[in-house]
């Protein structure tokens, strides 16, 4: 009789990340530093508002200061960029998150590029992506980093495995592909023009679904024993994977909700703390004399 697949509990992974952060946040507090994340929400999309609220609540529970900037739907690209630049110049802000997607009419890429690299805690800038591709990003994109963290937490091997990524967005599909590649996986990226998609997915030892379509990945696409990571979230609390159908073949699988999502938020918090520590250490270096008193 076939063993039941391992359910990859994102809440457990997130809790482990937050537990390690608590001591670091306490150490910063002793130095008079409170990590601060500024979240920008443009428009009144209910899903985006919910995500921003969840992130703010997670910050407060951990002792991270959360600043929410709400902008109207009619905000122009220039106005949004101006807000981002002011946050860049605020020394009390350590991380900036622009909630995606922004309303039509705003040049999202221009807005992302306005975020200072040292505050790009969600890895959305071109420079952040490039550093991630070369394997030395301070802040890789949060959801891709969450996916790798889940694999590591459960000791699921990456090296030598064939990873199939369904989706090629610049903040999910592409960055997770390079992160897996940097961990010595062989990576295939699928997209809307991929021919014989079920056959391609069926060759994957690791399957990452990041396509934005509910229950898109079918059970008979999955190779027996494959690890399935569902990065989608669609109305009705369903992911991009037909969870029930994929259980029959997967050896391990993330649920939706309580899979990749909680780890994404925990990763965002970690990056904010990383940025705060880096800034605090830089400031201390500037203050300390560079000579020896005899």
TrEMBL record:
SUPFAM superfamilies: Aminoacid dehydrogenase-like, N-terminal domain, NAD(P)-binding Rossmann-fold domains
Listed GO MF terms: methenyltetrahydrofolate cyclohydrolase activity; methylenetetrahydrofolate dehydrogenase (NADP+) activity
List of residues binding NADP(+): 167-169
Transmembrane segments: none
Keyword Amino-acid biosynthesis in record: yes
Domain of life of the organism encoding this protein: Bacteria
Involved pathway(s): One-carbon metabolism; tetrahydrofolate interconversion
GO CC annotation, single: cytosol
Annotated family: Belongs to the tetrahydrofolate dehydrogenase/cyclohydrolase family.
Assembly description: Homodimer.
UniProt name for this protein: Bifunctional protein FolD
Organism: Paenibacillus antri
């Amino acid at each position: 009789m076939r063993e039941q697949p391992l359910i990859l509990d994102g809440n457990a992974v997130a809790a482990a990340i937050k537990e390690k952060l608590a001591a670091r946040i306490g150490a910063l507090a002793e130095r008079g530093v409170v990590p601060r994340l500024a979240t920008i929400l443009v428009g009144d999309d209910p899903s985006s508002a919910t995500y921003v609220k969840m992130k703010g609540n997670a910050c407060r529970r951990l002792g991270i200061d959360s600043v929410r900037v709400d902008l109207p739907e009619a905000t122009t690209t220039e106005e949004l960029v101006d807000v981002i630049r002011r946050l860049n110049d605020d020394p009390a802000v350590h991380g900036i998150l622009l909630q995606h997607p922004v309303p039509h009419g705003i040049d999202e890429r221009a807005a992302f590029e306005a975020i200072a690299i040292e505050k790009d805690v969600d890895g959305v800038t071109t420079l952040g992506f490039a550093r991630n591709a070369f394997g030395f990003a301070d802040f890789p994109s949060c959801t891709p980093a969450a996916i790798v963290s889940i694999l590591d937490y459960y000791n699921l091997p990456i090296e030598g495995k064939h990873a199939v990524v369904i989706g090629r967005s610049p903040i999910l599909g592409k960055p997770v592909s390079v992160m897996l590649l940097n961990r010595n996986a062989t990576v295939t990226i699928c997209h809307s023009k991929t021919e014989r998609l079920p056959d391609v997915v069926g060759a994957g030892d690791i399957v990452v679904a990041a396509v934005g379509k509910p229950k898109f990945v079918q059970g008979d696409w999955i190779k027996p024993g494959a690890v399935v990571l569902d990065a989608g979230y669609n109305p009705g609390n369903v992911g991009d994977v037909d969870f029930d159908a994929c259980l029959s073949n997967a050896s391990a699988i993330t649920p939706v909700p309580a899979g990749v999502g909680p780890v994404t938020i925990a990763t965002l918090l970690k990056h904010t703390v990383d940025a705060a520590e880096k800034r605090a250490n830089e400031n201390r270096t500037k203050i300390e004399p560079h000579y020896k008193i005899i």
